[in-house]
Write a structure and sequence with these properties.
The protein is an alpha+beta fold and about 450 residues long. It has 9 helices and 19 strands. It has 2 domains: about 260 residues, 3-Layer(aba) Sandwich (Rossmann fold), CATH 3.40.50; about 130 residues, Distorted Sandwich (Coagulation Factor XIII, Chain A, domain 1), CATH 2.70.50.60. The longest helix has 16 residues. The protein is globular and about 80 Å long. The protein binds adenosine-5'-triphosphate (ATP) and magnesium ion.
């Protein structure tokens, strides 16, 4: 078997809470400040790495612990996990922007990375100067960088500002140039953490395409994102991190499902709506929603329903009195807050007579027609005798579609290309006679 591009063994990173270790988003930033402030850095680092032996000190936090894995050249690997799971810490160690407390890392080839919102540029220098600096740090000659320069500027779309100091760039512009540099300087290993969220949809799409291209040319890509649909589209396999450790790994779809299921278990308490503040809900309160969740075809709670499969939206409530003629409805909004659909009992010319006490309403969607992406649901209940709203919750439930059997093929358009999946069919005729075409 070929030599791994990345081999990590027992990697650990310990932080001392409350002692800020200076953060740099690139090697350039880290090197820059070593040159400008070597003594203070020496003191600070010595301080940070001199832990007393007491492992259980409560101001010590293991951001990463006992992490081992191998990644082969050309693999595209995702790292997923909740906030604070250790994803960015791992990528910083791999990019040599932070140093491990334990274990070691073997990397074969040049690494270029784009980490979090910071962008890895020297703020006082222009875009052009930064491109050359980054190239030099990656070990390229000036001529090599020059040969890539036009392509980088073109991809970034910030050509007009290329001779402006980077400190005047918007965060989106910095990310655009940062990604263009990282992806075009022919790294053997490309590391991208989250940043794409800052760019607009068109740019994000372009970046995902570029990462795919980079991997197809045999290079290795590591990708961190909370957007599961981009992870499943891009990566072949993924690691799930939790509390600084790898808790699961596998083919990407399976790892994403494992992660979303795991989140669901942790989130079960979040299903409770009875603690939502009175100011954040509408209606007169004679009925209050107490819980809202999705149930998949196997009857399990889910935050990740599959397009093309049945799903039920379940609403639980408590009524303060008997309420004849109550109608429920819900509205599904997409990631841009665009309403995708309203599911209303009025469409069925039906209502429920509700008795005082608790109850449960189920709304069944036989064949979920939603593209991959994130959604939220608003829920309402109204008394149609008095015409009063009973309860209204703006954001009762969030979910993410990241898998689809809708068309029964391996292509389903995602949320950036469509708001809804539509059943359709194609036919084809040849040698048509214009005289009998419909006018
Ligand atoms: N410089 C630091 N000093 C002290 N603690 C830190 C530092 N950097 C990260 N941590 C802590 O390490 C843990 C892991 O953080 P990390 O940024 O790696 O998480 P993450 O998985 O990237 O999360 P997110 O999804 O929110 O980006 C967190 O508890 C964080 O507070
Ligand atoms: Mg992070």
């Amino acid at each position: 078997m070929a030599r791994p591009a990345i081999r990590v063994e027992n990697l650990g990173k310990r932080y001392r809470i409350g002692v800020e270790e200076e953060q740099h988003e690139t090697l350039l930033g880290a090197m820059g400040s070593w040159f400008t402030a070597p003594i203070s850095n020496y003191r600070r680092l010595r301080d940070l790495s001199h832990f007393e032996d007491d492992e259980n000190r409560d101001d010590v936090l293991w951001a990463l612990r006992d992490v081992s894995f191998e990644i082969h050249p050309g693999e595209v690997v995702g790292f997923i996990g909740r906030n604070g799971a250790g994803k960015s810490t791992l990528l910083k160690l791999l990019s040599r922007i932070a140093y491990p407390t334990t274990g070691h890392i073997e990397l074969v080839g040049r690494v270029s990375s784009l980490l979090e919102v910071g962008t890895g540029f020297h703020q006082e220098l222009t875009g052009r100067e930064n491109v050359f600096l980054n190239g030099t740090i990656l070990g390229m000659t000036k001529a090599e960088v020059a040969s890539k320069f036009d392509e980088i500027v073109e991809f970034s779309g910030v050509g007009k500002f290329i001779d402006t100091p980077v400190k005047r760039y918007s965060s989106g512009m910095k990310v655009r140039l940062g990604f263009a540099v990282a992806a075009h300087l022919e790294p053997d290993i490309l590391i991208v953490d989250e940043v794409l969220a800052v760019g607009d949809i068109a740019f994000k799409k372009k970046c995902l395409g570029k990462m795919d291209e980079v991997s197809k040319s045999g290079r290795t890509v590591l990708y961190v994102s909370h957007e599961m649909s981009t992870v499943t589209n891009l990566c072949q396999r993924a690691y799930v991190l939790s509390g600084g450790q790898i808790v699961h790994q596998g083919p990407v779809q399976e790892a994403v499902e494992w992660y979303l299921d795991d989140m669901e278990v942790l989130d079960r308490d979040n299903l409770r709506l009875d603690e939502v503040d009175e100011n954040e809900r509408g209606g007169d309160g004679r009925l209050r929603f107490t819980s809202a969740y999705l149930v998949d075809r196997r009857g399990r709670h889910t935050h990740a329903p599959t397009a093309g499969e049945p799903v039920e939206v379940v609403l639980e409530y408590e009524a303060q009195e008997d309420l004849p003629r109550v109608m429920f409805w819900l509205r599904i909004d997409n990631h841009l807050n665009v309403p995708v659909s309203v599911l209303h009992m009025r469409s069925h010319e039906t209502y429920y007579d509700i008795q005082k006490g608790t109850g449960r309403v189920r709304c069944r969607i036989p064949n979920l027609p939603l593209p991959n992406g994130a959604y939220q649901i608003k829920i309402k209940a109204k008394d149609y005798v008095q015409g009063h709203m009973l309860d209204a919750l703006e954001s009762a439930l969030e979910f993410e579609v990241s898998a689809s059997t809708f068309f029964g093929s391996d292509y389903t358009p995602d949320i950036n290309h469509s708001t809804v999946l539509m059943e359709h069919g194609w036919t084809h005729e040849e040698h048509i006679d214009a005289s009998v075409s419909p006018s």
